[in-house]
Amino acid sequence: MATLPFTVTTSNTSTSSGESSTENSWCQSNWVLNREGCCIRTAQGKGRGVYASRIIPPQTVIEVSPVLLFTRNEYNDYGRHTILDHYVFKWRDGRMALALGLGSIFNHSSHPNVLYTIDPAHQCIRYTSTRTINPEEEMCIFYGQNLWFDPVGTAENLEPQVYLDQNDQSEFLDILAIDIEVDEVEPRDTSGDPHDILEGEALPFIWKKLQIDEEEESMEDIRTMQAWAVDISNSKYIATMLKWLKQSGLESDTLSHLKRIRKRDSISTLLLSVSSSVPVLPTNIDIGGPYQISVPCHPALTQTSLILKNTLWPTVYAPRRKWEPEKWSIAKVQWARDAINHILRNTAETASSDELPVVAYVPKPFEDEALLSRSFTAKDTRISTGHPLRHAAMNIIRNVADWRAQTSPADPLSDTPKPATSPSNGSLGISDTSCNGVNYLLTGLTLFITHEPCIMCSMALLHSRVKEVFYIVPMPRTGGCGGSACLPALKGVNHRYSIAHWRQKEGNAPAHLDEQIDA
Ligand SMILES: C[S@@+](CC[C@H](N)C(=O)[O-])C[C@H]1O[C@@H](n2cnc3c(N)ncnc32)[C@H](O)[C@@H]1O
């Protein structure tokens, strides 16, 4: 538990005299410590904190702190026995870093209004506001999950974050911490026959088992919808009505999991449509009028479900394939390893920018290159675009979608581009030529991403029909692939994808920022 050994002054001489008379004063312009109007004052129960003296707009770089670097030995021998131990964290190359300027004074909040990014080239850390910060408001960063002190007042005055998945900043640091050693992190495995199958512990990743609840196995769990039906008492009209239905334009995929005709006693009932308006039936046939009934929304995935659903309406039985991991050969593992190295290298490149260091990659498939003849890489661009939805996963779905949307609708899986048809609107970027849900899918493709996708991205990936997702850094607070939720395991979703967590080699597992400060 940290008890700070000094009191705080807001005087412009920045002494450590600790007069409490100034404790309740707000920052005034002559005390402002940097040109963005940041100042230091006492933060109740936390020691000192950084405060705004005027309105700070979102995405403003509020502070750039140079860092002081200590070698591991120097730090172990001296630094860690001192107050420094509350302030330093592990730099990317294993040295210990102390942020100068205001950097070491930012307190922790679970709802931070400031993000930080490391700039290794200039040996500094950049602090950026995530939303509008009001005068007199404290500015806080997120230290990580495992705090070494009891946090006080971290969230009550802070509004929800601008970013939908304010990722765990400590984990951003984690990934940065390993990036310069990319080649050692994931070395090529040259031993063995490339066709040899690797299993279990020999694989450099762990498949996440989707905890899928058994679906719709009791009557109250069965999801239903209203559909129009008509009774046909004379069976000689059935064929005529089926023919009429084909030409009526009433048929839709929504009912494709249901049988068309139900026979009960001497009455046959024909399922017509789910349209909101009453279907207009042929008048020259002697049948009753249409009426609405409840029918299952989905096919039956299990025998129990089938029996129950059939009591409502004859339903198609489409058993789900049991979850079973694919066989991974040495060559295929190498393909994945190359992909992981690719995203690590690209993450290293983001370190000198203000962007969040999240990188996504969709390589050409290992088995079936015909599915996609080129690879795609996308970075997180929330900061540079000022657009809260520009997560790396969303960006890559968009990129692949745009590419595929340029292919001929008649040949959706061929990816020869059409002449430039760039996305024109400010929407998600699916260009107008997209083939209505056919061309823009990641069907059969694998996504590699540095950080577990958030809930929004995990859902978008589900819609994209991605085959599998590999991530390196878990996101226990915001992840949608098992972190805070597991989207592909949800009841009722119409696609499931496999999820794998890439294991970091022992000794390379980067520590959390908080552990690093606490080291
Ligand atoms: C990097 S320093 C931050 C500046 C520090 N408040 C000061 O006065 O120098 C980290 C220390 O601040 C304190 N701290 C930071 N955030 C806090 C919070 N939310 N609640 C309580 N103490 C906090 C803890 O004592 C922690 O060891």
From TrEMBL:
Composition bias, kind Low complexity: at what positions? 9-24
Name this protein carries in UniProt:
SET domain-containing protein
Biological process GO terms, please? Answer: tRNA processing
Give all residue intervals belonging to the CMP/dCMP-type deaminase domain. 344-483
tRNA processing in keyword set: yes
Record-stated family: Belongs to the cytidine and deoxycytidylate deaminase family. ADAT3 subfamily.
Top-level division of the source organism's lineage: Eukaryota
Matching entries from InterPro entries are given as: CMP_dCMP_dom, Cytidine_deaminase-like, SET_dom, SET_dom_sf
Instruction: Tell me the organism.
Output: Suillus discolor
Pfam families in UniProt: dCMP_cyt_deam_1, SET
Q: What does the record give as the organism's lineage?
A: Eukaryota, Fungi, Dikarya, Basidiomycota, Agaricomycotina
All residue ranges annotated as the SET domain in the record: 36-144
Q: Which GO terms describe its cellular component?
A: cytoplasm; nucleus
